[in-house]
């Protein structure tokens, strides 16, 4: 039996069928969970805040200090080299 680490609700999934890295959803609190271990099954809550921060970094958005993200700078350098 697998339980949600956020609300302790039972998650109906075959423990022998889950794979490490698989994403599950809690039927009660609807939080997304990642399978981080399979024997025994261990789940971690996937935080929405972390996902948004990673997306911002990947997109190279302008930071609070006005500087471009490192990824954006690298992309610009690559474009200049191609020219």
Describe the structure.
- The structure is a single chain.
- The chain has 83 residues and is an alpha+beta fold.
- The chain has two domains: 44 residues, Rubrerythrin, domain 2 (Single Sheet), CATH 2.20.28; 35 residues, no CATH class.
- 30% of the residues lie in helices and 23% in strands.
- The chain contains two helices and five strands, in the order βββββαα.
- It has a three-stranded antiparallel beta sheet, with no helix packed on it.
- It is elongated, with a radius of gyration of 19 Å.
- The relative contact order is 0.13.
Note the total helix count: 2
Radius of gyration, CA atoms, in whole angstroms:
19 Å
The number of domains is 2
Shape: elongated
In percent, how much strand structure appears in the residues? 15-25%
**What's the average pLDDT?**
78
**Strand line-up across the major sheet:** 3-4-5
Q: What's the main sheet like?
A: 3 strands, antiparallel
Helix-residue proportion: 25-40%
The CATH topology assignment of the largest domain is: Rubrerythrin, domain 2
Element-by-element helix/strand order: EEEEEHH
Distance between the termini: 58 Å
């Amino acid at each position: 039996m697998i339980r949600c680490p956020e609300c302790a609700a039972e998650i109906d999934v075959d423990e022998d069928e889950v794979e490490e890295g698989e994403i599950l959803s809690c039927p009660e609190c609807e939080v997304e969970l990642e399978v981080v271990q399979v024997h025994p099954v261990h789940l971690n809550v996937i935080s929405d805040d972390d996902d948004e921060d990673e997306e911002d970094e990947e997109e190279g958005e302008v930071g609070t200090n006005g500087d471009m993200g490192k990824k954006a700078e690298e992309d610009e350098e690559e474009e200049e080299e191609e020219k």
